[in-house]
């Protein structure tokens, strides 16, 4: 059972009007961590080696390939919550962008509720350089085929969603990797990128009880 709290508009990949991304009930959107939405796109910031990114694989080589270069230890929370990420589809193809899969496992003896429901699975989370964004694997987004750069900025309505994980059970979702809109012609840019999000254990009314940062780094080459 999902719970929701708060709603506001936020743009991914920069400010400005764009496509509205609506999931079930048109109530989901960019993940939140309890902020007021004035801090820019999720995952954006000045971290990472942003000056070193750019370019793509030569045409005809299958597009950039994704590998994991670092994965954080399990978040420091007062529950036994294990978080993991794996590469599902290593290379971009004309039909599909690269794909990752995130998994949260409740290794404790009691059910736990976590939030924000999209952020914990890295849906709508951008990297530190705001060059890439991870979007739900079951969605359709305005992007150039065989390039996977978003052609429009995505504005998303947000509600703070939560979900429960039973003892011994897992929650798994696929996320696809897209390049954010740029003024140039670059597709998925090569380089190393850091993704980070907030994982919270919440109460039934969606109030965070404890939170921790968790993330990973990927290399596109």
Please, could you describe this protein's structure?
- The protein has 221 residues and is an all-beta fold.
- The chain has one domain (3-220).
- Helices cover 0% and strands 43% of the residues.
- It has no helices and 12 strands.
- Residues 26-74 are annotated as: Disordered.
Keywords:
221 residues, mainly beta, 7-stranded mixed β-sheet, 5-stranded antiparallel β-sheet, 12 strands, 0% helix, 43% strand, elongated, disordered N terminus
User: What Rg, in angstroms, do the CA atoms define?
Assistant: 17 Å
Shape type: elongated
Total number of helices: 0
Secondary-structure element sequence?
EEEEEEEEEEEE
Low-confidence stretches: 1-30, 32-48
Average pLDDT across residues?
A: 78
Largest sheet: 7 strands, mixed
Structural class, by secondary structure, is: mainly beta
